[in-house]
Structure formats: structure tokens, C-alpha cells
Specification:
single chain, alpha+beta, Rossmann fold, Dna Ligase, domain 1, D-amino Acid Aminotransferase, Chain A, domain 1, 3 domains, nine-stranded antiparallel sheet, four-stranded parallel sheet, 11 helices, globular, binds adenosine monophosphate
């Protein structure tokens, strides 16, 4: 990367959601301006120096956008590969193409993980009703059918139960290429948020424990209630993942902790997010360096900051109507309120979050 990436430069961010907003705010603190590119305005366009509202396949607009910035990053993993390719003709896209291609496809992602010797849920590819029937015979019921691409927050997923009509389940997911996953009897769900910089340096925050409601993250507790060896192993897994992807930026790896015969816990990787992540929002108020600042440091090729945690953490997502309780959170000592500025509080929509910081 050339020497132009210094405070005062402008970076591009694909996507106008809350992750883009928090990235742009962290960038601004370091004197870095943000240019948001998205089809529609959103929380990020309220805080960025520039924005372009155009479709992701507009070659001319993408070229002009890329020419205006030192590098481009993204707040969601479903960036069309053609969009990334067009931008890459003008400037670096970080995290790079290997990270995008691998994490956009659940089958490639699992094959990549297993290739590194990292355990996942058992799975089989499904391309039609016949292969679904064979996979169900192998993996049993209940099991979970997931589209290989474009899934998030439980979208693009269906549970195969006793009595489920298999062709109907497959059609309900659009008859798209899928994988069937065996149901994992997890004791808890955890995630590791970490960063790797252009020189290969690595920093990880403490392991997060995540509680979901209707497939959407509801609450994150840090540190996770797992033993030290398991926590060390979780971070070591992520270190192998980022090295394997030659990754630059912040990454989140979601894992299932499963009780083993010896009374301990073993880890299975569920999903890799090649971006800043909801389970890392607590780092804004609860860590020396936030995941958003760390991402800016990493993609700019600057030294990584300390991921040291400042206390015990509870992060609550404010979904839908929860946001109307904003006044209650403002009066809580030790609690930080974050409001994303979305105008319609639809049920389940991520409207904001609060971080509670306790003394250890
Ligand atoms: P995902 O979109 O893959 O992150 O899945 C969303 C949520 O569904 C996860 O956080 C789990 O709570 C649940 N889930 C997904 N896959 C499995 C699995 N193979 N076994 C058990 N629960 C799962």
C-alpha cells in the first residue's frame, strides 16, 4: 500500500448500515474520512463525509467511488464478487478476495475450516430434493437446511423435523444450492472477534458468549463462561483462520461449545463473518481499542491497538420497540447507549445497543 494512507485520507465503505456508521465514526476519530457507497441511505450516511447512493452493479459509479478513496472495505459479506473486482482495478479491497469468496459460501467455508483441521457441524451439500433426502437419511432429524449463499440472522434457513415435507422445505428456500447441517447440541454459543494487520500481526478480544432470540443476537456477555484452555483454543482457531485467509481487518468467528465426555467443552466453528460484528459492539465502551478503530488501523496498515477489556461486560441489542426505553438506559450508571438513527422500529430490527460495564 502506498504512503497516502495516513490521517487525512479517505476510505470507502460498502454498505450504509449501523456497522458502516460505527466504522465511519471510529475512522473520523483518527482523522480518516469515509465515503459510503450503498443503494440506499442508512445509519452510515448520517455520519460520513461523502456518500454515493447507487446500485452495486453500476460500473461507472463504482469506478468514480473507488477513484475517490485510498482503499475500500465493507460492512457485509455479500458484496457481489463483480463489485469487488471493479473496485480492485482502482484501489485495494480489504479484507481481500479470498476472505470474501470463502465466507460467502457456507460449503466453501466449511471445507476451508475442515481443511485446516477445524471442526464444524457435520454437513452435506444439497442441490435438489433427492440429495436432501439422502442428507437427511445421513444426518437425521432435526437438522438444519441452510442456503449456501446470502443467509444472515437466521434468514435462508429451515429446520427439517420429523414429518417435514422435504421437497417443500427445499422449495421454501428458493430451491437454491444448500447445505444440510446436523443439529449441534451446544451448551453455549461463543464468538471470537479479532484483527490481523497487513504485516500479519494479530490481536483478539476476550471470548464473547452470545444469546440469540429468533436467530438474532440478543445479548453478549464477556468473558464467556468457558475454561481458560477452551478460551485459548478459541482464539488459536481464529489465528489459524486469519492466517489461512491471508486476512486483513477485523473478523468474527462464531462457535458452538459442546460438552465432551471428559466433562470439558470442545469447540465447533459455525460461521465466519469477514467484518466487524455485533458481538464485538461492547469493545467501543469496554476495551482500550474498539473493533471499529481496530479495523481502520488494520486496513490502513497501521499498528494494532490493545484489545484489553476494561471490566465485565453485558451488551444488549435494542430490537424493535426496545429502542423506546432509551431514557431508562441514559440514567443507568456505567451504561452506554448507542442509537443507530433508523426511523422505523420494525419488530426485530436492530435499532441500537447498550453496553453495561461492571468492575471485574
Ligand atoms: P447461523 O445463521 O448459521 O449463524 O445460525 C443462526 C443460529 O441458528 C445460530 O446462532 C444457532 O443458534 C442456530 N444454529 C445454526 N446452525 C446450527 C446447528 N448446526 N446446530 C444447532 N443450532 C444451530
Amino acid at each position: 500500500m502506498d504512503g497516502s494512507v495516513a490521517p487525512g485520507c479517505m476510505i470507502g465503505i460498502l454498505g450504509s448500515g449501523q456497522l458502516g456508521r460505527m466504522l465511519a465514526m471510529a475512522a473520523a476519530r483518527l482523522g480518516v474520512k469515509s465515503h459510503i457507497y450503498a443503494p440506499e441511505p442508512g445509519p452510515a450516511t448520517d455520519v460520513a463525509a461523502h456518500f454515493t447512493l447507487m446500485p452495486y452493479d453500476d460500473v461507472r459509479a463504482l469506478g468514480e467511488f473507488a477513484a475517490s478513496v485510498s482503499l475500500v472495505t465493507y460492512e457485509f459479506e455479500n458484496v457481489p464478487s463483480e463489485t469487488a473486482r471493479i473496485i480492485a482495478e482502482h484501489c485495494p479491497v480489504l479484507p481481500g478476495p479470498r476472505a470474501l469468496a470463502t465466507t460467502q459460501d457456507r460449503l466453501l467455508e466449511k471445507q476451508f475450516l475442515n481443511g485446516l483441521g477445524i471442526e464444524t457441524a457435520p454437513y452435506m451439500p444439497v442441490d435438489d430434493a433427492g440429495s436432501l433426502a439422502r442428507a437427511v437419511a445421513q444426518l437425521g432429524r432435526p437438522s438444519i437446511l441452510k442456503t449456501r449463499r446470502f443467509g444472515y440472522d437466521g434468514k435462508g434457513q429451515a429446520t427439517v423435523r420429523e414429518g417435514s415435507d422435504l421437497p417443500a422445505v427445499f422449495c421454501a428456500l428458493g430451491a437454491a444450492p444448500c447445505i444440510l447441517e446436523g443439529m449441534v447440541p451446544f451448551t453455549r454459543e461463543v464468538s471470537v472477534v479479532a484483527a490481523r494487520s497487513t504485516d500479519g500481526s494479530f490481536a483478539a478480544w476476550d471470548v464473547c458468549e452470545n444469546e440469540h432470540a429468533n436467530h438474532v443476537l440478543a445479548r453478549t456477555l464477556v468473558p464467556a463462561k468457558i475454561d481458560e484452555d477452551t478460551a485459548r483454543e478459541a482464539i488459536e482457531i481464529v489465528h489459524r483462520v486469519v492466517d489461512g485467509l491471508d486476512y486483513v481487518g477485523v473478523i468474527a468467528v462464531e462457535m458452538f461449545a459442546v460438552g465432551d465426555a471428559g466433562g470439558g467443552e470442545r469447540l465447533l466453528v459455525n460461521e465466519i463473518a469477514p467484518r466487524v460484528h455485533n458481538s464485538g459492539h461492547w469493545t467501543i465502551d469496554g476495551s482500550v481499542t474498539s473493533q471499529f478503530e481496530q479495523h481502520i488501523r488494520a486496513i490502513c496498515g497501521w499498528p494494532l491497538g490493545s484489545p484489553r477489556r476494561l471490566g465485565r461486560i453485558e451488551m444488549l441489542n435494542l430490537l424493535g420497540d426496545d429502542i423506546f426505553r432509551w431514557r431508562d438506559f441514559l440514567v443507568e450508571a456505567g451504561t452506554s447507549l448507542h442509537v443507530y438513527g433508523k426511523n422505523e422500529a420494525r419488530p426485530g430490527r436492530k435499532m441500537g445497543h447498550v453496553t453495561r460495564l461492571f468492575e471485574n
